[in-house]
Write a structure and sequence with these properties.
The chain is mainly α and 115 residues long. It contains four helices and no strands. Helix 2 runs antiparallel to helix 3 and helix 3 packs antiparallel against helix 4 (82-110). The longest helix is centred in the middle third of the chain and has 31 residues, at 46-76.
Length: 115
């Protein structure tokens, strides 16, 4: 139980830190709120609502990993390094693809309105 408590405290601390320091994560929090509200109106099917909100949560997880990667790379060196730039670009690409996943998820569910 102690381990679970420490994990919860660390999770809270990490989320609080990233919310205070990362604009992209704050924007995704707003997107999450809009997704929850939008999913209520987009479909009555609970699984589709979970799918829509889950796509945003997935992007937030990818953003957390990307931010961690960038912070670690900056901790190694602030000097320009082409290898580190490539790694940071891959992290950004992961976020970009997850955002594309949100778009596809919402288009898929909302396309049912056109039927």
């Amino acid at each position: 139980m102690d381990r679970l408590t420490r994990a919860a405290i660390n999770t809270y601390a990490g989320l609080l830190f990233v919310t205070r320091t990362e604009t992209a994560f704050r924007q995704e929090l707003v997107l999450l709120l809009l997704a929850v509200l939008g999913a209520l109106f987009a479909t009555e099917d609970p699984w589709k609502r979970i799918f829509l909100v889950g796509s945003v949560l997935f992007t937030m997880i990818v953003e957390l990993l990307n931010t961690s990667l960038e912070r670690l790379a900056d901790r190694i060196t602030l000097n320009y390094d082409p290898q580190i730039e490539k790694i940071k670009n891959m992290g950004s690409a992961a976020v970009g693809l997850s955002l594309l996943g949100i778009l596809c998820s919402w288009l898929l569910v909302l396309s049912e309105w056109l039927k």
